[in-house]
Write a structure and sequence with these properties.
Layout lengths: L3 E6 L17 E2 L2 E2 H11 L3 E8 L7 H5 L4 E4 L4 H10 L8 E6 L7 H10 L5 E7 L4 E3 L6 E3 L5 E3 L3 E4 H9 L9 H4 L6 E5 L11 H11 L6 E12 L3 E4 L2 E4 L3 E3 L6 H13 L5 H4 L12 H14 L2 E11 L6 H15 L6 E6 L5 H4 L3 E12 L5
Bound molecules: cytidine-5'-triphosphate (CTP) and magnesium ion (MG).
Length: 383
C-alpha cells in the first residue's frame, strides 16, 4: 500500500562541506545529490508521497526539485525545524507511517526502506544502525579514558515513525536535536535498530563526495568510454556555434541543425560509450523537426539514454580542429556551458583546440572538425 510519507530534509547550508552551493544540491554521479534519495524513496512500492524540504529564500532550482517529489517546502534554522516544516506540509493521520531522511545520505537502498517499514509493524520507531569499530576515548578529563564501544551505535537515516508520534515529540523537544529519534527515545517508545549500510554514510566534508561516489559505485560494472568525430563545411554566414557558444566568424558552418561540431562529436562519444548507434540514428538529417535544432537537445538526449542504460558521465574531452576562428578566448565559456547543460562539475569538462598546420581540409579552411571522448561510470543498480 502506497501510504507511507517520505520527508527528505535538504534545507541545510552545508557549512562543513564548503563549496558555495549547499552539498545536497551539488552534482554527484551525474545527478544532484538530493535526487538520489528522492528517486530511491519515490520508487519504493510502499511510499506514496515524498516531500523535499529546501532552504528558505531565493532558491532557483525549485522546478527541478518539484519534478522529483510531490511537495517542496521551505525548512527552518535547525534540522528539527526543517523536519517539522516537512511534516506539517503533508496531511496525514496520526498512524500514517513516515520516513525522515537526510538529503546528505544519497546511498539509500530499497532494502533499507523495506526493512524499516517492516520493523514498524512491531515497534514505534526504527532506524539503521552501525557498530563502532574504532577505539573510543573520552578526552574530557585530564587523562584519556577508554570507552566500551560494544553497546554504542552510529545511527543513520531514514528514521521511521508514526506521524502523530514524531510530530508532537519534535514540537515538544529542544529544536537542536542531532536526529529525530532523539525526540522520542526518552518517551519510552520502542525503537528497532536495523543493520545500516556503509553506503548510507552522510556527506559532511568535501572529501566525503569522493568516498560516497566510491561506495555507491563499488558493486557495479566497469566504466565505459566512447569517442566521436564530426565535420561541417564552411559556407555563407557570420558566426559559428561551437559547444553552445556563438562565435563571430567570416563564415558559418553548413548543417541541418546548428552544426555545432563540438557537441555533435560529444553526443556521438556518449552514444558510443553505451553502444547506442550514432547521432544520425537518433536525429536523422532527413527529419524536418531537427532543422536548425539546438545541438544541446541531442546531447541531453544521449545523456538520458546513457542514464537509462545505467551510466553517468564522469568526464568529457572535446577537441576543435580549425585554423580560424580562434577558440581560446571562448574556451572557458564553452566549458561552462557544456558543464551546466550536463550537470557536470567544471573540472570534468575539457575543451581544446588545434590547427592542422595548414594541411588538409581544415588547413585549407574548407570546414571544421571536432572530436570528443567521454567516460561514463556505472550507476548503482536499483536493488
Ligand atoms: N538540514 C535541514 N535544515 C537545517 C539543517 C540541516 O534540512 N536547518 C538537513 C541538511 O540539508 C542535511 C541533513 O539535515 O540533509 C543533515 O544535516 P547536516 O549534514 O548537518 O547538513 P548541513 O547542516 O547542511 O551541514 P553543516 O552542518 O556542515 O552546515
Ligand atoms: Mg548541520
Amino acid at each position: 500500500m502506497k501510504s507511507t510519507i517520505a520527508i527528505i530534509v535538504a534545507a541545510g547550508t552545508g557549512e562543513r562541506a564548503g563549496g558555495g552551493t549547499p552539498k545536497q544540491f551539488r552534482p554527484l554521479l551525474g545527478r544532484q545529490m538530493v535526487a538520489w534519495s528522492a528517486l530511491a524513496l519515490s520508487r519504493h512500492p510502499s511510499i506514496g508521497r515524498t516531500v523535499i524540504v529546501v532552504p528558505k529564500g531565493a532558491y532557483n532550482q525549485r522546478q527541478e526539485l518539484e519534478a522529483l517529489c510531490d511537495i517542496v517546502v521551505e525548512g527552518g534554522e535547525t534540522r528539527s525545524q526543517s523536519v517539522i516544516a516537512g511534516l506539517k506540509a503533508t496531511e496525514a493521520n496520526d498512524d500514517t507511517l513516515v520516513l525522515i531522511h537526510d538529503a546528505a545520505r544519497p546511498g539509500l537502498s530499497q532494502s533499507i526502506i523495506t526493512e524499516l517499514l517492516a520493523a514498524l509493524e512491531t515497534h514505534d520507531a526504527a532506524a539503521p544502525a552501525m557498530t563502532v569499530d574504532d577505539a573510543l576515548k573520552d578526552t574530557s578529563g585530564d587523562t584519556l579514558k577508554t570507552i566500551d564501544r560494544a553497546p554504542l551505535r552510529r545511527i543513520q537515516t531514514p528514521q521511521a515513525f508514526r506521524y502523530g508520534d514524531i510530530l508532537s515529540a519534535l514540537i515538544d523537544s529542544p529544536q537542536d536535536l542531532v536526529d529525530d529519534l532523539a525526540a522520542i527515545e526518552a518517551m519510552g517508545k520502542s525503537v528497532a535498530l536495523i543493520q545500516g549500510e556503509a553506503r548510507l554514510a552522510k556527506v559532511t566534508y568535501e572529501e566525503d563526495f569522493e568516498m560516497i561516489s566510491r561506495l555507491m559505485t563499488q558493486q557495479v560494472r566497469a566504466p565505459r568510454m566512447g569517442t566521436g568525430f564530426d565535420v561541417h563545411q564552411f559556407g555563407p554566414g557570420d558566426q559559428v556555434t561551437l559547444c553552445g557558444i556563438k562565435i563571430p566568424h567570416t563564415h558559418g558552418l553548413i548543417g541541418h541543425s546548428d552544426a555545432d561540431i563540438g557537441w555533435h562529436a560529444l553526443t556521438d562519444a556518449i552514444l558510443g560509450a553505451v553502444a547506442m548507434g550514432d547521432i544520425g540514428d537518433h536525429f536523422p538529417p532527413s527529419d524536418p523537426q531537427w532543422k536548425d535544432a539546438d545541438s544541446g537537445k541531442f546531447l541531453l538526449h544521449a545523456q538520458r539514454l546513457a542514464s537509462e542504460a545505467g551510466y553517468a558521465l564522469a568526464n568529457v574531452d572535446i577537441t576543435l580542429i580549425c585554423e580560424a576562428p580562434k577558440i581560446k578566448p571562448y574556451r572557458d565559456a564553452m566549458r561552462a556551458k557544456t558543464a551546466s547543460l550536463l550537470n557536470l562539475p567544471l573540472d570534468a569538462v575539457s575543451v581544446k583546440a588545434t590547427t592542422t598546420e595548414g594541411l588538409g581540409f581544415t588547413g585549407r579552411r574548407e570546414g571544421m572538425a571536432g572530436q570528443a571522448s567521454a567516460v561514463l561510470t556505472a550507476l548503482p543498480k536499483p536493488d
